[in-house]
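Team,

Forwarding the record for the chain on the shared tracking sheet. I've put the sequence and predicted structure together so nobody has to dig through attachments.
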Amino acid sequence: MSNGTPTRWLRLAAIVVFASSLAACSTIRNTLQPAASSSPPAPMDATARAALLQHALDLLQSGNAKDADVALHAYLRDVPDSKAALYLVAQIEKPLSDLFPSDSFTIKLSRNDSLSSLAKTYLGDSLSFYGLARYNDIPVPGKVSEGQTLRIPKTTESLQALARITAAAAAPPASSIPSVSTPSKSAKSADTSRKLADLYYERGLVAFQHQDLNTAIADWDKVLAIDPNHKDAQLSRAQAIRLKNNLAKLRK
């Protein structure tokens, strides 16, 4: 009987230790459970959102579409109605046929061209750079070089841009354009003034396409000095001034 007592106590001690272990495991499990089903993270502040979107753009420029897509979806959880982020995601995830028509024309890249600048010029949105890279089988959008041939999808906007640029390239250089004088009432003088107005207007378009807003506005001022009722110059000048003011606000 005395030999059995220690054994019984040892068994009881083992049971107590085992039960304590189970209780500890249950406590840890209950502590982790809320973390797994915790509420969504707090919204990002404006600085964090801007940094995340810029990070996604940098990833796309380097050709890392997979991680960019993850970053963009994280951004959209915080800003679900962001047109920029939604458009970038569409360029990553959608088939090319949903983004652009198959018909295209070709251009050659100039010294300071980038896919972003060409997307702005021909497609109306610099964020179209990634779709344009996919369209041309360019794995790293940020790495293009002067003289490289690029396909531009034929859209209404791209064809209009091509026509403007072609017309402007055929115009004489600024040094050969005579200074503007008060238009004469004669038919010949009126015709000359109209041609001058067209030349200055086309020059302004070229400057605007290269984001030289001051030159574009100055050229369109000359158009309006010749023909104050030149509707295209009025609209283009107003657009350039709005863009200039918006850029100035962003730089503050």
